[in-house]
């Protein structure tokens, strides 16, 4: 057991998040996402899991240790709804709350078309699949830096 570490952050997830460097991206996805096949194409090369967590819980845990990149405008991205790219479903609104809480201010989350999301996910450092069952619970985050 570790103090002040969210228990959803198992050893494999912590290792991957710590190993990432500035500018690397990671995916938190829902249970419907083709996570295993996409994860095989990533730098980490295998799927990480948070089965007992919904997307907001998983994002809260990840962002408790992962700083977002302040040098780009798209350090937090969400998968667009097919045919309705401007619609923001409840799961994405809930994740926006977690992002804002982690950063201590309103933080923009940009959108990315579904098939483009898959391509960016394959280029990510790692993929973490949550137990989220709601559609479009898929997000990409870019790691920032921690000041000295």
From TrEMBL:
EC number: 5.1.3.29
GO molecular function, one term: L-fucose mutarotase activity
Origin: domain of life: Bacteria
Keyword NADP: no
Catalytic activity field: alpha-L-fucose = beta-L-fucose; beta-D-ribopyranose = beta-D-ribofuranose
InterPro entries the UniProt entry points to: RbsD-like_sf, RbsD/FucU_mutarotase, RbsD_FucU
Keyword match Isomerase: yes
Record key words, sorted: Isomerase
Pfam families cross-referenced by the UniProt entry: RbsD_FucU
Name of this protein: L-fucose mutarotase
Organism: Labrys monachus
């Amino acid at each position: 057991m570790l103090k002040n570490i969210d228990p959803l952050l198992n050893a494999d997830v912590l290792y991957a998040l710590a190993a990432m460097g500035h500018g690397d991206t990671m995916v938190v996805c829902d249970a419907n996402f083709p996570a295993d096949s996409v994860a095989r194409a990533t730098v980490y090369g295998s799927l990480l899991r948070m089965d007992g967590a919904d997307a907001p819980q998983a994002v809260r845990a990840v962002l408790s240790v992962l700083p977002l990149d302040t040098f780009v405008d798209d350090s937090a991205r969400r998968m667009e709804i097919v045919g309705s790219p401007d619609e923001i479903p409840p799961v994405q609104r809930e994740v926006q709350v977690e992002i804002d809480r982690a950063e201590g201010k309103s933080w923009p989350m940009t959108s990315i078309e579904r098939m483009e999301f898959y391509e960016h996910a394959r280029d990510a450092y790692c993929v973490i699949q949550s137990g989220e069952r709601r559609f479009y619970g898929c997000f990409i985050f870019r790691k920032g830096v921690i000041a000295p």
